[in-house]
Amino acid sequence: MMAGFLDERAGLGGKVAAVVGGGFGIGAAISTALAEAGVDLAICDIDAAAMEETAQAARALGRTVTTCHADATDEAALDAYYDRLAKDFGRLDILVNVAGGTRRRAFMEASRAAIADDIQRNYGYVVQSVQRAVPLIRRSGDGGSIVSFTTIEAHRGAAGFSVYAGAKAATTNFTRAMAVELGKEKIRLNCIAPDTTPSRGNINGLPPEYGEAFMRLPDAVKPQGMAMYIPRGEQPPPEALADAVLFLASDLARFVSGTTLHVDGGTMAAAGFLDWPFGDGFVPVPLAGTLERMYRDGDG
């Protein structure tokens, strides 16, 4: 009974969504959740095999799905995706810009090509995607919802991720500005800002030696860093981010526009407070309990 009530209030059934980067990981969770809510899909992804697997799962739910194997950062490929979407569906209600990513590197060691790639992958394609989506959303006259993925790094000084952080901050403020510009057309734009998640993209963002060192840790130890860092004590799974997309895409959020929803287990709220072990608790820096364990010999 309650599910039916919420479904009716959400009003997602029968809508059409474009999910850029909707083939694997977080994007797959979003595509699947939208399909389960009764939304037809146009999925674009660089991973053809994963995208087809996600598409088949959505079709098994009775949804109409079209796919486009493309790198969203390639302007011609992204235009081809939108041309295909317009031909297959003729309209659009929801856009989710999921694609993005980077690698940890010192700014002064980054090549100009790597810098340009970071900007295009985390901001440039979003501008193009929104510009192509809006005319399709306008066709219904009923407005629509655009959700773009940014990051917690857009809201703090992320050493080692400077260009990525700047590009995501640009996406965040572009979203805010466009929410004002398109407000009277009932086209809502919002961002989701995750922090650390157990996704392939987050793992790939670190140098290989970090991942290899992490994998060598005992299984019982691996969650302890997250328990210290995340107030909730665990990473949000991709399904938690998909739930946030469902909310922002639905009529339940019909007056939510120009904002950023932090789905991070509380790390943005903590703003540097960590739950240090050995009795120190939530403080920005370790106190005597932790320091004594770390530097018990006096020299680290």
TrEMBL record:
Name of a matching Pfam family: adh_short_C2
Keywords for the protein's UniProt record, in alphabetical order: Oxidoreductase
Gene3D superfamilies to which the protein is assigned, alphabetical: NAD(P)-binding Rossmann-like Domain
Claim: Kinase is one of the keywords in the record: no
Entry keyword annotation includes Hydrolase: no
Molecular function as annotated in GO: oxidoreductase activity
Family that this chain belongs to: Belongs to the short-chain dehydrogenases/reductases (SDR) family.
Protein name, per record: Short-chain dehydrogenase/reductase SDR
Organism: Rhizorhabdus wittichii (strain DSM 6014 / CCUG 31198 / JCM 15750 / NBRC 105917 / EY 4224 / RW1)
